[in-house]
Amino acid sequence: MYASRIDLPDKLRSKLEKLLNSRLADALDLESASKQAHWNVKGPNFIALHELFDQLHGNIEQHVDTIAERITALGGRAHGTVHAAAGASSLAPYPLNISDGVAHLEALSERLADFGKKVRAAIDASAHLGDADTADLFTGVSRDADKYLWLLEAHLQGGR
Predict the structure, then answer these.
(1) How many domains does the chain have?
(2) What CATH number did the domain enclosing 33 receive?
(3) Considering the domain boundaries, does residue 4 fall inside one?
(4) In sequence order, what are the residues at sequence separation of 6 or more whose Cβ sits closer than 8 angstroms to the Cβ of residue 144?
């Protein structure tokens, strides 16, 4: 840990660094999965899904930066390379062989729901550690994860 005048003990900041890096890896994985879907989606709802997947990517990208900057603000090191994220992500691998819009909606929804669940656990963990700022950061990530999950699932629920 780098020295910091933040009034959180080094041991606590180290725990937060680990928690934040875990979610950073998942967010980077989800970010790349959304681009994979954006580039490869096919079917009758192509343009709507192509644009939705790109919006999801942009939203996750903003959170990736916020999470990484929180890590460094606490005196830690953000592990943000593709290689680091691939080794540390807890999300299921994204299927590379799909093109159908519904298949991409299903795959992204599964991963976004899993990510949201882990982010909610991170809210509780960071609050338990006494860091309201990190808990608040994760609350914003959670709110957007739920919003985009709703947008993805709305396509799957239509006509049922």
Answers:
(1) 1
(2) 1.20.1260.10
(3) no
(4) 59, 63
pTM: 0.96
- Which two three-digit tokens encode residue 86? 């691939």
Token pair for residue 30?
């989800």
**Residue owning tokens 């005048």:** 5
Residue 2 in any domain: the answer is no
Domain around 43: 10-157
41 touches 99 (CB < 8 A): yes
Per-residue pLDDT, 160:
52
The pLDDT of residue 96 is 97
pLDDT digits (tens, 9 = 90+) for 46-79: 999 999 999 999 999 999 999 999 999 999 999 9
Confidence of residue 45 (pLDDT cuts 50, 70, 90): very high
Alpha-carbon distance of 31 to 67, in angstroms, equals: 13
Indicate the SS3 state at residue 133.
helix
Place of tokens 């709305």: 154
| DSSP bridge partners of 100 | 42
